[in-house]
Amino acid sequence: MWKTRITALLILLLGAGIGFFVYKSEMAKMAVAKDATPKGFLSTHPFKLGLDLSGGTHLVYRADVSEIDATEIGDSMSSLRDVIERRINIFGVSEPSIQVQDGGFSNQGEQRLIVDLPGVTDVSSAIAMIGETPMLDFRTENPIKDAPIEATVGKDGKVVIDQYASKYAKTELTGRFLDKAILEFDQSTGEPKVSLQFNEEGSKLFEKITSENVGKTVAIFLDGQPISIPVVNESITGGKAQISGNFKATEAKLLVGRLNSGALPVAIELISTQTIGPSLGTAATAAGVKAALIGFLAIALFLIIWYRLPGLIATVALSIYVVAMLAIFKLVPVTLTAAGIAGFIISLGIAVDANVLIFERIKEELRGGSTVADSMHHGFKRAWLSVRDSNISSIITAIILYWFGTTLIKGFALVFLIGVLVSLISAISITRIFLYTLNIKKTNGFTNFLFGSGFSSAKAQK
Amino acid sequence: MFIIKYKKIFVSISIALVVLSIGAIAYFGLNMGIDFKGGSLTEVEYTTIRPEQTVVDASLKTLSIGQALIQPIGEKGYSIKTRDITDKEHKEILTALGQDAVEKSFTSIGPSVGAELVRKSIISFILVSLGIIFWIAFSFRKVSKPVSSWKYGFIAIITLIHDIIIPVGVFAVLSHFSGVEVDTLFVVAILTILGLSVSDTIVVFDRIRENIRVGHFKTFDETVGRSLDQVYTRSIATSSTVIIALLALVFFGPASTKVFALMLTAGMFFGTYSSIFLASPMLVLVQGMQAKK
C-alpha cells in the first residue's frame, strides 16, 4: 500500500515539477530582451508558434530543374536550399525554415522550396531578399548559324526579342559549380575584374568548354543577360575564369558579394505566398489559449459533478496530462498552429474518455455487488480493451494525416497523435494509482454515492 | 429496450437527416476555397474610416487583376479575392486601396499548389477510409451468431457514411449563409470524424458480442436492447467531454478554427447518435430479415 502511495506522491511531484518548468520557461522567455539571444535551458525552450500565430510569411517556390540531370536534382535542390538560407541569414530573420519538397505523385513531380519566415510580414521585401540572387551561367556559340531569333511576349504585353538566347546555347556550367568569386583590379589599367574559382567538377566542365571552343566566344550570362563575351584563346585548366565587363568598382563589388552569398544553382519561380499580420496572429493565440482554459475548466466541472470522487481524480490526472503535453510541445519542439491548438483542446476531451470508460465499468462492478477495491481492480482490467479499441481509430487517422499532410494538417495531426498516446498512459497509470492510493475498504451508502454518476448511485442491484 | 422497440422510427430519423443533408449539398453546393482552386485573398483593415465598397470596387477595376470579389469584414476591413497574383500585382492592389489600409493577411496560391492539395486530400481520405475499414474488419474478425461478422462491419461503415454526410450537409447550409469555403481544415475535420465516430460504434458492437457469448438473454432483440442499456450512458459521457472541448473552441477559439470545430461537434454528436440509435437498430433489422428467409 505504501508503495502505491509513494508512487502517487512522486507522480504529483513530477507533475508539479513539469508544471513549474513550463511556467518558468515562459517567464524566462519574456524576460529575454527582444533582440538578445536567449541563454540557458529555460529561456531556450519557448513554445514554438507557427506562422499563423506568430505572424510571418510562407513562400512556396517551384524550382526549374528541367535542365538538370535527374540524378543531380537532389544535390541541386539542397545547394539551392543552402544558398537561400545564407541569403536569409544575411537579413537576420530569426528561425527561418527552408525545406525542399521532392517531386512526388501528389505535386506532379514539381521540385519545390518552402520558405517560412516568422516575423516577416512585408512580403515584397521578403521576396526581394530571396529572389535577387544572381543566376550565373556560361553559354557557347550556337552551332546553327542564323538560328531563328526567339521572340516572346512579356507579361507587360511588350514583345521581347532575345537575340542572345538564339546566338548562344546553354552549357552545363552554372553558378552551382562556383567555389568563390574575388574582386580584382587589372594591374595595368586599374579596371575592376571579377575572378571566378570553380570547384572540381566546375573546373572540368570549364576545361571541356574552353577546349572545345578555342577561337570562339563564350558568353557569361548573369540573370539571363550577357555580361561578358570573351574569346577563348586556349583550353583553360584549373577552373579559373575572369569577367572583365566594363564594371564600375561598386558594381563589381556588389556582384562579388552576390556571387559569394551564392548564385542560385536552379532558377526558381514563386507559386504561392501567405502572409499573416502580427495582430491577427496575436488575436488567434489569445483566443486559442482562452478556449483551451475554458475547455479544461468545463471538462473538469463536468467530471466532478457527474463522476464525483473518480471525477476529481480524473481532473488531477487531466491536469498532469496538460502540463505533460505543454512540456512535450516545448521540448520536442512541436510547432503550434491554430489547428494544433484545436487538436490539443479536442485531445483534452478524448483524454478523459478512457477515465470515463473505466469509471462506468467500476460502477457496473459495484452494482454487481463487488466491494469498492475489487470493483476498481476489475474495472480497470475490463475497461482496458475498450479504451485501447476506441483510441486505435484515432491513431490511424492521425498517422495518415501526418504522413500526407501539409504544414497545417501536420500541426493538427502531430498534436492529436501525441495527445492520444499521452492520454492512454495518463488514464491507465495515473488515474489507477491515485484511485488505489485512496484504499477504500468499506462499501456503504457514502462510497456508493462517491462512485455513482449523474443521478444514479453505485448501489448493488439485487 | 426503448430504442429497439422504436427502432424503425430512429432509423427513419437518420434516413431523413441523411436525405436532407444530401439535398442541402446538392442544392447549395460546396464552395471550393482558394486552398484548392488557387487564387488570392487579401485582408486589410482601415485605420480611420472604411471607404464605400463601390469606391474600392472602382479603384480595383482599373487594375488588370481580373475579377475581384470584395467583402466587408469586421468593422473597418475588407477581404478581396482574386485569381492568384504576383508580388507586383499584390503591391498594386495595396496602392489602390490607399494609404489607410493596413494589410492583415495575404495569401496567393498558385494552381499547381491547389491541385496538389486536392490530390493529397483525396489520397488521405482513401487511406484513412481503408485504414478504418481494415480496423473494423479486424475488430469483427471472429464469427458470431446469429449475425455474421461482416455484417457488423458493413453496418459500421454505413454508420460512418451517415456520420460524415450530416456534418457535410450542415457545412453546405452554413457555407450558403455565411460564405465559408471548403478548405484544408474541412478535409481534416471529415477525416477526424471518421476516426472518432467509428470507435463509439465498435464499443457498442463489442458489448453486444460479449452479451451474445455470455448468453443471458433469450432473443437477439433483447441482447441488443440490454447491451444498449448498458453502454449508452458511457457513450454519451465520452462524447460529451469531447463536445464540451469542441464547444469551447467554437465559442472562444480562434476565428480560423471555428467552422472546423463546429463540423467536428456535429460529427461527434451524430456519431454518438448513430452508434446508439442507428447501428444497433439496423443490426436487429438485418437479423429480422435473415430470420424471415
Task: Give a description of the structure.
- The complex is a heterodimer of chains A (462) and B (293).
- Chain A has 462 residues and is of the alpha+beta class.
- Chain A has three domains: 2-47 and 277-451, Multidrug efflux transporter AcrB transmembrane fold (Up-down Bundle), CATH 1.20.1640.10; 56-128; 136-260, Gyrase A, domain 2.
- Helices cover 54% and strands 18% of the residues of chain A.
- Chain A has a four-stranded antiparallel β-sheet with strand order 3-4-2-14. A four-stranded antiparallel β-sheet of chain A has the order 8-5-11-12. In chain A, strands 9-10-13 form a three-stranded antiparallel β-sheet.
- In chain A, β6 (150-153) and β7 (159-162) form a beta hairpin.
- The two termini of chain A are 32 Å apart.
- Chain B is of the alpha+beta class and 293 residues long.
- Chain B folds into two domains: 2-34 and 112-292, Up-down Bundle (Multidrug efflux transporter AcrB transmembrane fold), CATH 1.20.1640; 39-109, Alpha-Beta Plaits (2-Layer Sandwich).
- In chain B, α6 runs parallel beside α8 (184-214), α8 runs antiparallel to α9 and α9 packs antiparallel against α10.
- Chain B contains ten helices and four strands.
- Chain B is elongated, with a radius of gyration of 24 Å.
- The chains are: A alpha+beta (462), B alpha+beta (293).
Task: Give structural attributes.
heterodimer; A: 462 residues; alpha+beta; Multidrug efflux transporter AcrB transmembrane fold; Gyrase A, domain 2; 3 domains; four-stranded antiparallel beta sheet; 18% strand; B: 293 residues; Alpha-Beta Plaits; 2 domains; 10 helices; 71% helix; elongated
